[in-house]
Amino acid sequence: MMQAAPFPTLPAMLRHQASVRPESAAFRFRDTPCSFAELWDGITRIAGHLAALGVERGDRVVVVIPNGPEFFFAFYGAQLAGAIAVPLYPGFGAATILSYADACQARVAIVPSDVPQAQLTGFSDLAAARKVVVATFGTAAATTASGAFPDTRASDPAFIQYTSGSTGAPKGVLISHENLFTNMRQMIAGMQITADDIFVSWLPVYHDMGLILKTMVPFLLGCELHLLPTDLNDVTRWLTTIEATGGTFTAAPDFAYRLCLRRVRDPASIDITSLRVALNAAEPVRADTIAAFERTFSLKDVMVAGYGLAEATVGVAMWPPKTPPRVDDMGNVSVGRPFPGVEVEIVDGDAPVSCGTVGEIVVQSAALPVGYFRNDAANAALFWRPGWARTGDLGYVDDDGHLFIVGRKKNVIKQLGRNIFPQEVERVADGHPEVRYSAAVGIDRGRLEGEQVYLFAEVKEPEAKDKAALDAIVIAIVRAINDALGFRPGRVYLLRPKAIPMTHNGKLQHDRLKKMYLSRELGEHILHPPA
Amino acid sequence: MSPQLPDIVDVVRLQLGIDRVEPDDRLMETLGATSADIVNIIATLEERFGLEIDDADLAELASVRDLFVIVLAKLRPAR
């Protein structure tokens, strides 16, 4: 049995750390230390400002801040003020941020100090129309901490993790303080993490693995944590930071490790053999990547595959380090057995299937959140049986109880470790006046970039358009997607009308489109780029 | 037909969603390309011009013109 959480809430845990080890660094961001005392001071200031704005227990506070100390002050400051933090990807445009703020009926949005004034004014005006107050981090932090904050309990939600905005209402998993402490204990036991581990991470702190495993766990255990910006252009710095700090535990999606193999010019000059665990998770794990990375950097059984999802708080399973990876005939890499306190079952529809048979993975755990925030339809579909969440991922369990992930049930696209629903991309592309319909699918060419969003858009009246006009449409679509969602598609194809396969009732057939593209059946339907 | 500089500029414009791109623009600093965007630009060039660009070729990549130089070198291998 798991022990009761020593702290009821995350702010209580951080207050404790600030009192027992005030001068120790909670983390170092780009080498600059932030002590637990400074962290707590920042948290209380933000909480004081939010209280002065009238934020009450259970209100939602959107936090749109990239990696760095400001994020933690705002994220935990919101919780200390009794609110539910709602971390969002800082690359989102104003309209996307506000659509999430609408979905969770946020009272306040906290943005970084360095947002240009014109942009801030524009955003504040848009937000005001929805009764969302925009607080810049700088103003909020200038507040002197006030004394009393609402009592929060272990069962209160700490934050909402939006998994992605698919069709209809966005799905935000409501994660409680108790869920977090439980899942952290499961991961600590399963990954054998100790206070002596040295964490190095550039993963986004506003998203589950980067937030919970790579920052909350070290805060809880008092481990050394070296945090970097989420800048994949600088993978060398990630590795040299591991070398310089003697890092023992890092994590990233498969793509980032592949990028290291490609970008690091002189791998022999970098010694990262201090690593105990290089967790590979958040997108399909390639056996080739593990072999090549370990060979290149002289590691042995350090890179391990892991599996998790926000619907189980975060961590579900990880392959044990110091054990050779288990790879099946299809090239799938096992993520090992579930963590202590977590169980998985494989089901087909409603019925469990036998060992070795592929089906949908369902998860049972004491860390299972109550469900999605105010989304009855999604909650009705979430649970297989009471206490068991459907993951939407397909997999199987072998004779020894090792879990293998083989694919996904949903059409979600995993681009660089980020979950992207086709619908959110299509919604933006369909907003172009010359687009009839669009469909986004994930294509993995088996190369460095991994799975990428390929967007197919049917264009109105193609015969009336020359190359320059078609170019302009592609450029406008790419820019609109980047502005709204913070990434660019891997490819954009413009198609003739009625090229995208649909069912009788007008539902896009993503799988069929993907097959047509890969088998070159789309040929004459493609208007742009010209063959 | 061997590619000309404007063909490369075109690939970059379309991939990044930018109307005007100059040959000396730096992909990351000037045009705001991410590493993922660059990987996708390379993939498009490989497909479009039927060549294969390896990791080592990208060491000096900074500007749009550098891409052109890389593509040309691949099409006419030095002997």
Please tell me about this protein's structure:
The complex is a heterodimer of chains A (531) and B (79). Chain A is α/β, with parallel strands linked by helices and 531 residues long. Chain A has 15 helices and 28 strands. In chain A, the strands form 7 sheets. In chain A, strands 15, 16, 17, 18, 20, 21 and 22 form a 7-stranded antiparallel β-sheet that branches. A 4-stranded mixed β-sheet of chain A has the order 2-1-10-9, with helices on both faces. Chain A is globular, with a radius of gyration of 23 Å. The mean pLDDT of chain A is 92. Chain B is an all-alpha fold. In chain B, helix 1 packs across helix 2. The longest helix of chain B is centred in the middle third of the chain and has 15 residues, at 35-49. Chain B is globular, with a radius of gyration of 12 Å. The two termini of chain B are 21 Å apart. Chain A binds chain B through residues 232-233, 259, 261-263, 265, 415-416, 445, 447-449, 452, 471-472, 474-482, 487-488, 490-492, 529, and chain B through 10, 13-19, 28, 34-37, 39-40, 43-44, 48, 55, 58-59.
Largest interface: A-B, 31 and 21 residues
The chain-level structural class of chain B is mainly alpha
Identify the overall geometry of chain B: globular
The tally of helices of chain B reads 3
The main pleated sheet of chain B reads as:
none
- Overall pLDDT level of chain B: 88
Question: Which terms summarize this structure?
Answer:
heterodimer; A: about 525 residues; alpha/beta; seven-stranded antiparallel beta sheet; four-stranded mixed beta sheet; 15 helices; about 30% helix; globular; B: about 80 residues; mainly alpha; 3 helices; about 50% helix
Please outline what is shown here.
The complex is a heterodimer of chains A (531) and B (79). By secondary structure, chain A is α/β, with parallel strands linked by helices.
Would you spell out the secondary-structure blueprint of this structure?
The complex is a heterodimer of chains A (531) and B (79).
Chain A: H1 10-20, E1 25-29, E2 32-35, H2 36-52, E3 60-63, H3 69-80, E4 84-87, H4 94-103, E5 108-111, H5 117-128, E6 133-136, H6 137-141, E7 157-164, E8 171-176, H7 177-191, E9 198-201, H8 208-221, E10 224-227, H9 235-245, E11 249-252, H10 254-263, E12 277-280, H11 287-296, E13 303-308, E14 315-318, E15 334-336, E16 342-348, E17 351-352, E18 359-365, E19 371-372, H12 376-382, E20 383-385, E21 388-397, E22 403-408, E23 413-415, E24 418-420, H13 422-430, E25 435-444, E26 451-459, H14 467-485, E27 491-495, H15 510-518, E28 526-528
Parallel strand pairs in A: 1-10, 3-4, 3-5, 5-6, 9-10, 11-12, 12-13, 26-27
Antiparallel strand pairs in A: 1-2, 7-8, 8-19, 13-14, 15-22, 16-17, 16-18, 18-21, 20-21, 21-22, 23-24, 25-26, 27-28
Chain B: H1 5-16, H2 35-49, H3 64-75
